[in-house]
Amino acid sequence: MRPSARVVVFVSLCSFVVFAEGAREGVVPAPVTPAAAGPSLPAPEVMPPRLKAFPLERKVDDARVERVLASLDTRARAAQVLLAYPQIDKTGPVHVGGVIFLSTMLRNTSKAKERIDAARARAVVPPFFAVDMEGGRSNRLSSVKALREMPSAREMALLPDDEVQAWGKKVGSTMRWLGLNLNLAPVLDVAPSGHMERNGRSYSGDPAVVVAKARAYSRGLLSEGVVPIGKHFPGYGDIDGDSDHHLVTCEWPKARVLAEVKAFTDAAPELGGVMLANVAYAAFDGRPAILSPSLVALVHERDWLAVTDDIAIQVLADAIEGTPEDVLKQAFLAGNDIILTTAPPDWDRGIDPIGVLVRLAEDDPKAMKRLEESTRRVLRLKDRMGLLDGR
Q1: Domain ranges of the chain
Q2: What is the enclosing helix (H) or strand (E) of 72?
Q3: Claim: this prediction has a pTM higher than 0.85
Q4: 52-384: CATH number
Q5: Is residue 203 over pLDDT 90?
Q6: Of 269, 230, 275, residue with least CA distance to 83
């Protein structure tokens, strides 16, 4: 996930180009509100579920998870593995497993809170409401006074752990108030140089510093009930290239890749999952990590969700010489549990991601089994967060 002041972003799922201020990594579709979508739903008088402090320490209620899983048909299960830009329809049910909020949607926090509350009230299963909140130039909540001067990861590396944890707590408290419950951070890339060092998103080139600061920041988030997702697995390291704009292939030997993974495993107690990189690793399939079954399998060796980076970038379709639909299918079949797309799931000018996954599962028993496995992992994390309480 990368910040920028003004970037040209490519929309593979949407097949057009837009210009966006304060864009997050990948694609920021321009807001689309056709007349057919109807009027906005007034914000309901609902309170968000009370997030549980340190949710990763909670035991999963397996019986409840299986009960909820059994209640979901194939389409509802396919929806649970999608983390998407808010749907265009502001009155219909929210089926997706998660909704991603970008900085442009968070400039007016009162309106953002109303929007999140409205989506929650219409949700079939309580969603993840996610943001990538790292700090520095990647500060999606800079409109909040208490977070306006939040340092970058590189700057936080110079602070004591308790101060880094305090920043995590501030972020978590603000997210909890808004109704956001999943942070696509911290960055666990060990970067002595290269792209992640230059943009200040990596804490350090020293693995011990990266792990210490990432864990401290994550503890602050967790104390407010917000779950961290570490990135960019298996590690960007000192790679000198931007995988959002061209295919970056890393020639590290397998041992080096596994050495980069150690930062993630050392931070395991504070992570609910990891986001895989769009970088290709020659020693592991030679495909972007999100499309690599062997790298996703490494994620599942831990009790983690495997989350893709944004699939809505043209680079990925070009890398496999395919279509946006091919990227979606391959990301799912590689084993990812949550597929992130910065495109509305109900946009008639894009693909129907839920429908694609349903057809894939119905045509292939192995894909159907895969869908059940990923939906179960999603529900298990939601149960630990308290999102399934009372079901």
Answers
A1: 52-384
A2: none
A3: yes
A4: 3.20.20.300
A5: yes
A6: 275
